Automatic annotation (TrEMBL):
It is found in: Membrane. This is ABC transporter permease. The chain crosses the membrane at residues 34-51, 71-90, 111-135, 147-168, 180-205, 244-263. Residues 32-266 form the ABC transmembrane type-2 domain. Keywords: Antibiotic resistance, Membrane, Transmembrane, Transmembrane helix.
Length: 287
């Protein structure tokens, strides 16, 4: 029985991998999706261009080089949290989630597929973000260690945030409510040291920031791209690499345990009649 169950889960994981790649390919053929992938990197590129020639107060270190890694970490978190949340709410209404529930281990495959999908699309967005970073590359560390660290942070960031985004998205009654998650994410950026050194914040805000993945993804990106002496601006004057991977790993474990449970419970409340009602409501709004 155990062998059969394990094999069934492996089949579900493989199906999720295929599904995720197919959905990513389809997304890259949608003009609206492609425009979105380019939009935010373009905005950040403009910001970095305007920062050229500006240094961090009290130093000769380029301000753009200081901000870019934090933006990179934030982009990974945004891609993994907000994207899945909106899609889950939509696919509950159109019946996709109901069909996944009817498949053995379908929720596991569904979760793996979403991780692959948003991993691919977030990779594209972050790659487009790094390109303008070469305008401040003189102050950045861009060696083999940098790229290895960024790859590890990217993978950890996605397996950490996508399951959490899926779980949160399943709590919304419709896709329009996912804007609340975006608003909450923007609030959490304040104590996360993304645009302002966390050590300059009150101690209680520092503790709040360290609870969530935003801070740790930004810290990891900074540790990968900034010179070693810039760690002096961090908590404890250290990059805390082991702690960073530990906290992100804990979030990933919790996410992959909780998300399938939440999805199954949400899918049990979904029925063909409920899906038809939601579809009719959407069509009526379109008219």
């Amino acid at each position: 029985m155990t062998t059969t169950t394990s094999e069934a889960r492996r089949v579900a994981v493989r199906a999720g991998l295929v599904r995720g790649l197919l959905e990513a390919r389809q997304s890259l053929r949608e003009p609206g999706d492609v425009l979105w992938y380019f939009l935010m990197p373009l905005v950040f590129a403009v910001v970095l261009i305007f920062m050229r020639g500006t240094t961090v107060p009290g130093t000769d270190f380029a301000l753009g080089a200081m901000v870019l890694p934090s933006i990179l970490g934030m982009s990974i978190a945004f891609g993994g949290l907000t994207g899945p949340a909106g899609m889950i709410a939509t696919e509950r209404e159109d019946g996709t989630l109901l069909r996944a529930k009817a498949t053995p281990n379908g929720m596991i495959g569904y979760l793996v597929g979403k991780t692959i999908l948003f991993g691919t699309t977030t990779l594209i967005s972050t790659a487009l973000l790094v390109i303008p970073g070469f305008t401040v590359a003189g102050d950045l560390r861009l060696d083999a260690r940098t790229w290895a660290m960024l790859a590890g942070i990217f993978v950890m960031g996605l397996v950490t945030t996508v399951p959490v985004g899926v779980a949160l998205g399943s709590l919304f009654k419709n896709a329009s409510q996912t804007g609340l998650l975006l608003l909450g994410s923007m609030v959490l950026m304040v104590p996360s040291g993304i645009f302002y050194p966390i050590t300059a914040l009150p101690a209680w805000l520092q503790w709040i920031g360290q609870v969530f993945p935003y801070y740790w993804l930004g810290l990891g990106a900074r540790s990968a791209m900034l010179p070693a002496e810039m760690a002096a601006a961090e908590i404890g004057g250290s990059w805390r690499t082991l702690e960073m991977f530990g906290v992100l790993g804990a979030w990933a474990v919790v996410g992959f345990i909780v998300a399938p449970v939440v999805l199954r419970r949400m899918a049990r409340r979904a029925s063909g009649a409920a899906v038809a009602e939601a579809r009719d409501r959407v069509m009526a709004q379109g008219w």
